[in-house]
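Cont'd.
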Amino acid sequence: MRRKRSDTIAETLEGLILDGTFADGDRLDEVQLAERFDVSRTPLREAFQRLAVSNLVEQIPRRGVFVRQPGPVALLEMFEVMAELEAACARLAASRITDAALDEMRAVNGRCHASVEVRDVDGYYRENERFHAILYRQSANGFLEDKCLRLQRRLAPFRRRQLHLRGRLAQSMAEHEAVVAALERGDAAAAAKAIRAHVAVQGEKFHLLMSSLKQPADSRTGDRHAPNLP
Amino acid sequence: MRRKRSDTIAETLEGLILDGTFADGDRLDEVQLAERFDVSRTPLREAFQRLAVSNLVEQIPRRGVFVRQPGPVALLEMFEVMAELEAACARLAASRITDAALDEMRAVNGRCHASVEVRDVDGYYRENERFHAILYRQSANGFLEDKCLRLQRRLAPFRRRQLHLRGRLAQSMAEHEAVVAALERGDAAAAAKAIRAHVAVQGEKFHLLMSSLKQPADSRTGDRHAPNLP
DNA sequence: ACCAGAGTTATTGTATACAAACTTGTTGAC
DNA sequence: GTCAACAAGTTTGTATACAATAACTCTGGT
């Protein structure tokens, strides 16, 4: 089945916003982007609507659409919700998870361990995502799974940096083990608590997150309008 | 600030879908709706994009947009997530709630009680929504609050019928009291458990929910097209 | 020099025109 | 009679044209 042009455009723009190519407050110029994607304004505007619902951009009538990157407060709130959503997954999964899934989680953890040994941060990141994906799936709640995946994708660029913290990989591994152990016992409360602690922004993670927020704000003065696109 | 036509159109369509005017599988005809709203197809298509992100409709390329009402499974999943989200609110609110908010919750519960006495289901429903809104707010997490409000609105048409269950109002009241009591003690776990039980679909609520699902399928033959708009 | 206001320019919102592709109906062969 | 293939007719997707409004500029006044 062929996809619409506006679909791929929405995805591309979403990626550009998530990875920080567009900074907070940048105006998305219709004609400029239309030229860039080699389409008319129509599919672009359709893509904008979708981004607006996802809160990635804000549409101000007769003014244009503006990128809305989460500020420090919003970001902490999102991480907090992520932690609670994953805790819900763990709670539900504790009584629903299959033996096969438990095996797979242990296998993933094994590969995580191997990546830690070799200092392969990217490899660890991949397996870590897989670990969480299994957890979402094992909540046996497709709606919850979808919500988790979406929020995870949105937080991914911020989450990623935290892995470079010294000793973070090993600690993260240990937390994974705790989650699996609780799930194995069918201990819903313990599983929820373990994954919540794993995801929550606390300790050094907080400082790293805050400092990463100031990164995209350099290279431009406080000016809101007239952004220089690449 | 003046709003766009496509904004109000999206809201109107959302309302029509949520209240069941459009049944599952109905195709939203662009030209037909354009005539009805007295606009061109352009703003309609922009509205469609927004509905698609909210999973209210499904866009099948080159085929059209189709209403997607949640089936039994999806509905139970959504209620389960609602329960978990509210549990998260309660957990966070337990240590964040203000004395003023606690007072307000007690006041709302008082009005709920009065409504029960007079068998005023509508009044109870209003105050009940207010109760939950306060809880969301007291999570002190705007992102979470927003997610809760959105899901609540989506589930509202289904939730409403459950109040007509015999003895449901009194039981619901008691559950509210339990939540407030736990919050007052600052007992996060108890507050989460209480609100989860309050929201969860269980016992007789399950049967009522399932039977209400067959309701929207009457009043129309298997015909897919030509829905009668107000 | 600075502010006010009208006119100009630029940009968004909407309508219409055109192109592509899916549906459907008909015809013909087996 | 059934199935396949082709053609007509819809319907969606995209481009372009037009309208409305906000931003900007330039001029004139104090």
